[in-house]
Amino acid sequence: QVQVVESGGDLVQAGGSLRLSCTASGLTFDDYAMGWFRQAPGNEREGVSCISRIGANTNYADSVKGRFTISRDNAKKTLYLQMNSLKPEDTAMYYCAPMTSDRSWFGCSRDANKYNYWGQGTQVTVSS
Known about the structure:
Blueprint: E1 3-7, E2 11-13, E3 18-25, E4 34-39, E5 46-51, E6 58-60, E7 68-73, E8 78-83, E9 92-98, E10 122-127
Parallel strand pairs: 2-10
Antiparallel strand pairs: 1-3, 3-8, 4-5, 4-9, 5-6, 7-8, 9-10
């Protein structure tokens, strides 16, 4: 049984930083690219960032480029999202998931339709 658990969300002031973590069990972690997504109330789920199986390639939404950094530790089966210079518009529930539709070594995608096994999410709230 695959289980994905996100953590690290909090209430922070604008300009602050947070590091989100995501652990995945029940699967071979380094068999999958991983992605971070977010969803604010009334909005569709947005692909924030993704990282390939061994971390060789990453991709970011334009809205977070230069502020967020995705990384992974395959030995610990953990995915991270370092978020700096946070803005109120970053407020959302953040989710991670493995990219189950494609097992290529070097690719990843921010298309949520390519992902499965969603966790409960972790709430990030940025106050102005």
